[in-house]
Design brief:
binds 3-isopropylmalic acid; 45% helix; 12 strands; ten-stranded mixed sheet; alpha/beta; globular; binds magnesium ion; 399 residues; two-stranded antiparallel ribbon
């Protein structure tokens, strides 16, 4: 055995431990949640991203302008476009987020982000880290909040996916110790687990939801998932009015398909990778990842995004203007609610349901057989202006 190889690996491991202990210290300095009612102006950054991103971002932007018209006019809210988060620029600078772009993002309070290309081995791009993952880490966006609703099937789930640690935190920092031995690292900290689990319980409490489900694989991944689960049950003791149970991720993926079981789940909290997988599966019941929005929330910053890809082929074939902006607009609704306007967000969600799931006067097909994103956004805005919006929505969801 080569002592030098082992020494190098040990040294590397040592540096990881130091880095993570430092992160724990940072997390211990508990930061206060930002209070948007006290912030003027609230700066909303719009990031187009790659492929169809700039097209659907433009539609989401006009919806934000429509919903926040008064606040934009009186200076409470500023909408700001952020350029440069494109795969070409990121590849040229060999950075998951170029420094100047990150600086611009940090000047905003919240951002609405279009899809960004995640390079992988064999692509024409350098294999840089996903910019989502990088942004979540840089801005400490520890909670990935993903709602999935299918009213007619009794599905109403809210996922709280841990967003800054787990299998992701060292996703680009594994080591090939030798040609034959590859090691990745998975990290769970008490502070990291506690803050996401607490957020899930607080959400349940505030919304009178009586059940929280913790999902891990603690029977096999005993140390880190074991910690997540233990902390979950410890926090549960503070919420005696809420029933807490836990499932392993494998059987959980099965139970989501079981019509009798799945309606019993309400709020689910889980480590990063399991959350990544389970939320894609969950979104499929609602019509696929293209229909879902996703909120990445931290105490200081928040980023809202569509969770589908950038569809470069649509752009190449000249079909970008037919891309469906619904997921990005759903993300915009979450943003509007997050900065303090939940009633307007609810109106937007109702309009999205009516237009996308029930009435369907304009339907995007991704090509010229369907509506354009511009038509669709107008349809949404027109629907929101209906004074009987709520009744109209209720009429549909009863079906
Ligand atoms: C998501 C995506 C990302 C993730 C990718 C693009 C890195 O799948 O937001 O769920 O794995 O987190
Ligand atoms: Mg995913």
């Amino acid at each position: 055995m080569d002592d030098a190889v082992i020494a190098k690996a040990k040294e590397y491991f040592g540096s990881i431990v130091e880095e993570q202990l430092e992160r724990v210290e940072q997390m211990k300095k508990s930061q206060e949640w930002i209070d948007y009612s006290q912030v003027k102006p609230i700066i909303i950054g719009i990031i187009g991203g790659d492929g169809i991103g700039p097209f659907i971002a433009a539609e989401a932007r006009s919806i934000l302008e429509f919903l926040l018209k008064e606040e934009v006019e009186n200076g409470k809210v500023v909408l700001r476009d952020i350029e440069g988060l494109t795969i070409e620029n990121r590849a040229a600078q060999n950075k998951s987020i170029p420094d100047d772009v990150l600086e611009e993002i940090k000047k905003c309070h919240v951002t609405l982000k279009g899809p960004t290309t995640t390079p992988r081995k064999g692509d024409p791009w350098p294999n840089i880290e996903s910019c989502n993952v990088s942004m979540r880490r840089h801005l400490d966006l520890f909670a990935n909040v993903r709602p999935v609703k299918v009213p007619k099937d009794g599905i109403d789930w809210m996922f709280f996916r841990e967003n800054t640690e787990g299998a992701y935190i060292m996703g680009s920092k594994g080591i090939n110790v030798t040609d034959d031995l590859a090691i990745d690292f998975k990290v769970i900290t008490s502070q990291g687990a506690e803050r996401i689990i607490r957020l899930a319980f607080e959400y349940a409490k505030k919304n009178n939801i009586d059940k929280v489900t913790i999902v891990t694989k603690a029977n096999v991944v005993k140390t880190s998932d074991g910690k997540f689960l233990d902390i979950g049950y410890k926090i549960a003791e503070e919420y005696p009015e809420i029933e807490t149970d836990d499932w392993y991720i494998d059987i959980m993926t099965a139970k989501l398909v079981d019509p009798k079981r799945r309606t019993q789940f309400k709020v689910l909290v889980l480590p990063n990778l399991y959350g990544d997988i389970l939320t894609d599966e969950a979104a499929e019941f609602q019509g696929g990842v293209g229909t879902a929005g996703s909120a990445n929330i931290g105490k200081r910053y928040a980023m809202f995004e569509a969770i589908h890809g950038s569809a470069p082929r649509m752009v190449k074939e000249g079909r970008a203007k037919y891309a469906d902006p619904a997921s990005m607009i759903r993300a915009a609704a979450m943003l509007v609610s997050h900065i303090g306007y939940p009633a307007r967000a609810k109106n937007l969600e109702m309009a999205l349901d009516i237009c996308g799931n029930y009435e369907k006067k304009f339907v995007t097909t991704g090509r010229d057989t369907g509506a354009t994103g511009v038509d669709y956004a107008h349809y949404i805005m027109e629907t929101m202006q209906d004074l009987n919006l709520k009744e109209r929505w209720e009429g549909y969801i009863k079906i």
